[in-house]
Amino acid sequence: MEIIGITGQSGSGKTTIAQILRKEGFLVLDIDKWCRQMYNDALFLEKIRTNFPSAFENGVFDKRKLRHIVFENQENLKVLESLTHPYLKAKFLKTRRCNAYKNYDIFVDIALLYEMGLDCFCTKIIRACAPFEVKMQRVIKRDNITKDAYKKMLIYQKDDIKDDILVNTNKPLNILKTDILKLVEEIIC
């Protein structure tokens, strides 16, 4: 079993790569989905309320407010990461352990692969990339945020790892799919 990371900055196209692989029958772990699920957990939200009370309005959690709080202050981001990263890493390690003796490869879709220290578990790493303007427009459309908010997000996301396999996602979907499947064949064969 090989673990192949799929990473890249916000808007780079890593989720599109992951969707292509899922449709082809590969197991793809979606760490962003795990993260979203955390925010539905009452115990986790209580930790958020304790550390970031202004992320709540009338008792209701507002993820936009939390995003603003943590991307405006690096110390706040570190606090949030101290709450999220251990949970996500533990879930990843448990999933890895549960699949260790199975005869298939696992792809991991995760923006903060290096920041969380999960790169050491990957035999190969695919890094999605696209021109800055393309990434920015994708995220602005997807998350309904401003250009400034997007630029602040990127400050904390690595994008200069030299050993990664780069995949430019700024192309028609059918061509990207062909490229991805060819790449995967090369990686896992």
**Biggest sheet record:** 5 strands, parallel
Order of helices and strands: EHEHHEEHHEEHHEH
What value does the average pLDDT take?
A: 90
| Shape call | globular
Radius of gyration based on Cα positions: 17 Å
Lateral arrangement of strands in the main beta sheet: 2-5-1-6-7
CATH architecture, by name, is 3-Layer(aba) Sandwich
Give start-end ranges of low-pLDDT stretches: none
Number of helices: 8
Total discrete domains: 1
List how many beta strands DSSP finds. 7
Description:
- This protein has 189 residues and is of the alpha/beta class.
- It has one domain (3-188): Rossmann fold (3-Layer(aba) Sandwich), CATH 3.40.50.
- Helices cover 52% and strands 14% of the residues.
- It has 8 helices and 7 strands.
- A hairpin with a 2-residue loop joins β3 (56-57) and β4.
- The protein is globular, with a radius of gyration of 17 Å.
- The model has no long low-confidence stretch (mean pLDDT 90).
Which SSEs are present, and which pair or pack?
Blueprint: E1 3-7, H1 14-23, E2 27-30, H2 31-38, H3 42-51, E3 56-57, E4 60-61, H4 63-72, H5 74-98, E5 106-109, E6 124-129, H6 132-143, H7 147-154, E7 165-168, H8 173-188
Parallel strand pairs: 1-5, 1-6, 2-5, 6-7
Antiparallel strand pairs: 3-4
